[in-house]
Specification:
The complex is a heterodimer of chains A (111) and B (115). Chain A is mostly beta strands and 111 residues long. Chain A has strands at 3-7, 10-14, 19-26, 30-38, 45-50, 56-59, 62-66, 70-75, 84-92, 100-101, 105-110. In chain A, the strands form two sheets. In chain A, strands 2, 4, 5, 9, 10 and 11 form a six-stranded mixed sheet that branches. In chain A, strands 1-3-8-7-6 form a five-stranded antiparallel sheet, with no helix packed on it. Chain A is globular. The chains are: A mainly beta (111), B mainly beta (115).
């Protein structure tokens, strides 16, 4: 069975304090790994898709990387507006496009 | 313009009632999904439709019946509601199953509370 595990469950950072979120996965055949951001009371908002080991994507203060076993979401010099829950999900070959999600990392960035 | 819209946003009802949640997307996508997010914020796929055809049915009780009148709409009807059905339900859409890049775009969610 496909599994996605995210760590830590919660992370508190000071503004400007860089850190990384981890997403480890065990799947039959990876088609894509997705990162989403979810704000309270809202739906997940797409951030990145990574398709093969070694791939990296960047957007503002966020950078996602992928290996054969895990993905990292690096947050550089975070700001309070980066506070949200970050969700990792995998899509597998033959899985009909469904996303299997991890339980998320709740990030709070304080002044 | 909201890309994926769900109604209602909140739904409070009694056990045993029947209720529906509606979803519409204006992205021109062929595939639509329903996900359930439980109290621990865990998101899990329930159904997916591709061009009005059921593709995924993830061991969901048959009290839940999705209906897709056209590829822009996917509604969820729930019969005989139970306390355990309380959750946030998200609709999503993406390009067709065979598309190389298959990003799913989510609606804002419907918070269902069964009393």
């Amino acid at each position: 069975e496909d599994q996605v595990t995210q760590s830590p469950e919660a992370l508190r950072l000071q503004e400007g304090e860089s850190s990384s979120l981890n997403c480890s996965y065990t799947v039959s055949g990876l088609r894509g790994l997705f990162w989403y951001r979810q704000d309270p009371g809202k739906g997940p908002e797409f951030l990145f898709t990574l398709y093969s080991a070694g791939e990296e994507k960047e957007k503002e203060r966020l950078k996602a990387t992928l290996t054969k076993k895990e993905s990292f979401l690096h947050i550089t010099a975070p700001k309070p507006e980066d506070s949200a829950t970050y969700l990792c999900a995998v899509q597998v070959t033959g899985g009909g496009n469904k996303l299997t999600f991890g339980t998320g990392t709740q990030l709070k960035v304080e002044l | 313009d909201t890309a994926v819209s769900q109604t209602p946003k909140y739904l409070v009802t009694q056990m045993g009632n029947d209720k529906s949640i509606k979803c519409e997307q204006n992205l021109g996508h062929d595939t639509m999904y329903w996900y359930k997010q439980d109290s621990k914020k865990f998101l899990k796929i329930m159904f997916s439709y591709n061009n009005k055809e059921l593709i995924i049915n993830e061991t969901v009780p048959n009290r839940f019946s999705p209906k897709s009148p056209d590829k822009a709409h996917l509604n969820l009807h729930i019969n005989s509601l139970e306390l355990g059905d309380s959750a946030v339900y998200f609709c999503a859409s993406s390009q067709s199953i065979g598309a190389v890049k298959n990003i799913q775009y989510f609606g804002a969610g419907t918070r269902l509370s069964v009393l």
